[in-house]
Amino acid sequence: MTDAQPENSVSPQNAKRPISAVQVLRCGEAEQHAEHRYGSRLPQLWWVFFGTRWVPLPLQCFLIHHRNGLILFDTGIDPAILSDKDYIRQAIGRFLLRRIFRFRLNASNRIDHVLEAAGVAASDIRTAVISHLHFDHVGGIAQLPQAELLVSAREWAILSQPHPEREWILREHIEIPSAKWRQITFTPTDDPLFEGFGGAYDIEGDSSMILLPTPGHTAGSMSMLIRQEGWDPILLVGDLTYEACLLDQDIVPGTGDKRSLLSSFAIVRRLSERLPGLRIVPSHDFGAVDAVSQATRQTAKLEKG
Fold this sequence. Notes:
Layout: E1 2-3, H1 12-15, E2 19-33, H2 34-38, H3 44-50, E3 54-66, E4 69-73, H4 80-83, H5 91-100, E5 101-104, H6 111-117, E6 125-129, H7 135-138, E7 148-152, H8 153-156, E8 180-184, E9 201-202, E10 209-213, E11 222-226, E12 234-238, H9 244-248, H10 258-274, E13 279-282, H11 288-295, H12 297-304
Parallel strand pairs: 4-6, 6-7, 7-8, 12-13
Antiparallel strand pairs: 1-2, 2-3, 2-5, 3-4, 9-10, 10-11, 11-12
């Protein structure tokens, strides 16, 4: 399923712009515990084993059409996680997975097929930004052997810690021979817009796509700020929150480091105050399609006029 291809994606006028379109790509669906999404005072293992309220969870990534090439923000999940009994090597992981998520996936949800449905060849992807290393965000890297994979150095360091699989970071599906990983570090900046983030990383050097550290879901999670003249700015926040409205209410999910999450929430809200119209877009938010469409509506209206 492919959503949110703006009407302005092929316009001659937009060919001169750094970014001509942003698409939300649906890579399957799942359910998660309500406590997972909205948080809980109960211990995590309690709701994993005894929680009875499940809520729908879209699995999404984002395709950015930049004049220098196509860029993905995350790569979705590999449907083989359901069909290959050895996809998760650890028996405890296989046991817990079906108690944490209820996946609805098929072969069409693999990133190369998702891209094909969107009219794009997987081989045309130039860069993939990985918000964090969880399996449902790196599941397509094997289908993108030509793409440079950007990950924060802090996130990559998790692989050197004992048992990253306990955090659902599966080394065997990350450290694969074909993967062209590049660790990035965030450069200090005097730009008051980014005060509090501790640095930024300009992907193309044109200020259209800025990576920002937003730890909490994992230690090295990062977000992407997209800016294009005529659009509302867009902040892709990965799994910092599962719904944009929860960030405004300081409702943290049931996983991750609560203190870091709240700190990142506050910094993102300050960015929103400095950037009027900022659209905060979580990866698992059903509102992502509308948020991206609304952010790009201004250019579409101008071109129609």
